[in-house]
Amino acid sequence: RSCSFTGFSTVQSRKLAKSLSRSSVRSRMSLKSPKAYNSLQKGAVIWDPKPLQVKKIFEALKKGLNEYLEAHQAELDYLSGRHKDTKRNSRLAFYYDLDKQIRFVERYIRKLEFHISKVEELYEAYCIQCRLRDGATNMKHAFSLSPSTKASRESLVELYKNFQECTEDMCFIEGALEVHLGEFHLKMKGLVGFARLCPGDQYEVFVRLGRQKWRLKGKIETDDSQTWDEEEKIFIPNLHEKFEIKVTELRGLATILVGVVTCDSINFFTTKPQAIIVDITELGTIKLQLEVLW
């Protein structure tokens, strides 16, 4: 699924293209157009790459994309089988409608395959930069342990420059990878609290993912049902941030904090809607139930 951001500058794209062309392996990436990654959030570049986190997200993303690919390939096989039967003995209009469905699924499969190839390409470039950065770090450490000479000082300056360039490249590639993460559609399913939830109680739920926020209020009705002023919200996945969920109870002009929890999004990259139940209190006496669709 596609997603949109705002404001990745031409200068940043050129930097990425220039840095990726410094080695023969990196130059295989097609970054000719400065518009390739023009969807990053303004100010979203983080100058502290997190390779382990990026690896986890990449593996989860690739697995989820392959699930979508397998599901659509199965659908294509099913439609193709019907198409052959229909061609022999069926109405012409139904045959053409089936043919249109097959072409639509085929186009979607090609888009998914291209999406997967771009993700793999970006991650390959990221790993190369990570190894170069680690190499520069090790060499800096080795030079710092040797006697100081003019040549060693010049080498240290050059190594520091290489380290900084690799760090910048990793950050820009992280931003480019975020463009391919899709969307999370969150649905509010309500609070679960057994005896803790009473008719007339009012709660506020605040969900944050980086700069993205969702604030909604709900009330426990006399028949124990719940009404919420908003039921669905779209979030753009983030490589570095986790979901932060805060629940407060509203009592007149006062508010009482029920609990704050964080939730990792790695398990959300899947084709099926996921029911998420989060313990808001330490003892689990109040839980929040959400549904997440990627």
From TrEMBL:
<comment type="similarity">
    <text>Belongs to the RIPOR family.</text>
</comment>
<dbReference type="InterPro" id="IPR026136">
    <property type="entry name" value="RIPOR3"/>
</dbReference>
<feature type="domain" description="FAM65 N-terminal">
    <location>
        <begin position="1"/>
        <end position="294"/>
    </location>
</feature>
<dbReference type="Pfam" id="PF15903">
    <property type="entry name" value="PL48"/>
</dbReference>
<dbReference type="InterPro" id="IPR031780">
    <property type="entry name" value="FAM65_N"/>
</dbReference>
<protein>
    <submittedName>
        <fullName>RIPR3 protein</fullName>
    </submittedName>
</protein>
